[in-house]
Amino acid sequence: MRGEARPTRARISLDALRHNYRVLRASASDARVMAVIKGDGYGHGLERVARTLMPEAECFAVSGVDEARPIRAAGATQPVVLLGGFFSADEIPLHAREAFQPVIHSHWQVEALAAAGHHEPLDIWIKVDSGMHRLGFLPDEVAGVHRRLSALPGIREIGFLTHLAEADDRDSPRTPEQLRTFEQACAGLPGPRSAANSAGTLGWPAAHCDWVRPGISLYGATPFVDQGRARPDLRPVMTLESGLISVKQLPAGAPIGYGSTWRCPEAMPVGVAAIGYGDGYPRHAPSGTPLLVDGVETQLLGRVSMDLITVDLRPCPQARPGARVVLWGDGLPAETVADRAGTIAYELFCQVTPRAPRQVVESQPRT
Ligand SMILES: *Cc1c(COP(=O)(O)O)cnc(C)c1O
User: Fold this and answer.
1) Taking every annotated instance into account, which residue ranges of this chain make up the domain Alanine racemase C-terminal (predicted)?
2) 251 phi and psi, to 5 degrees?
């Protein structure tokens, strides 16, 4: 066994993060890049991600001031876009002072800006609902909202931003429809445009506009549903790993774990690794979900416990307690695991708990 502490950790490769940023930068060379680092940098650590990308990123995007302030405190001088805008009018002077750029998505926010007292000049984005029907103004409201906001003395630049609902499906007709609706909604109005998430950045050049907004791809997960097709050159930033703490030989028919949901079809070696849903490994991952033991691909057996999982050691019968177990990352894409667990890599990353300490590695071998 390796030392006294639990061997569970999320290794974070800053090299991989920088590499992915450059891949995205190059694939949208016609646009500028807003690095999306909301949700604690998709579970990778907000300030860590911001500091790593600070020398290169042209802009950061987060959900609100609670995530924007630590980025400024860490020394970022670039603009920070707040994708949720402000949650109350009290925030407006702070946004202006700190060069935060709120996304204005609702009429109550327009009224709050109109009612705000004197503040330093503020750059804002108007969110256009081009068909996703989540946040934003409907297309026929956009010109009116722009007119109202551009007449306010505290407002400097106004950009236009929309979000794509199906860019992860490279065959979906919704994306060109949304882009057309977006373009028409802000036709003739001055100001930068932004439409592309990761899938838009890597798969839809027509969506690049002035600013692309990649998130998940920065962390190395491919954003497309058709993962086999033309996989972009992205490297996993997070490797979730643990170790075997027990190995034993079980007889044919032996049931495994809570609910006895899996039975050994033959006499076989079975291992237990020190990781579970208490660390953020998905409890719904079924038997058969891939994982690596000492670099060899094998599978999860039975239900995931809070602190433990059980693994099939038939492909690696030489594995002993202390063997390294990789749940996703280096050598095993998070999106493959997510697919088996009925979720997406975004959720896997965000759910890794503080009990799995983030361990920074500057460089990591290529997979
Ligand atoms: C999260 C988010 C993004 C990034 O999306 P990815 O799919 O992670 O690349 C872009 N724009 C908005 C408005 C978002 O909320």
Assistant:
1) 237-361
2) -80, 160
CA of 254 from ligand 1 middle (Å) equals 45
Predicted structure pTM score: 0.95
**38: annotated active-site residue:** yes
- Ligand 1 pocket: which residues have CB below 6 Å? 36, 38, 83, 163, 197-198, 213-217, 223
pLDDT digits (tens, 9 = 90+) for 322-360: 999 999 999 999 999 999 999 999 999 999 999 999 999
In this predicted model, what pLDDT tens digit does every residue of 127-148 receive, in sequence order? 999 999 999 999 999 999 999 9
Q: Is the pLDDT of residue 203 over 50?
A: yes
Give the residue whose CA is nearest to atom 4 of ligand 1: 215
Cα–Cα distance for residue pair 302/293, rounded to 1 Å = 17
Which atom from ligand 1 is nearest to the alpha carbon of 223?
7
Structural domains in the chain plus CATH codes: 31-219 (3.20.20.10), 238-361 (2.40.37.10)
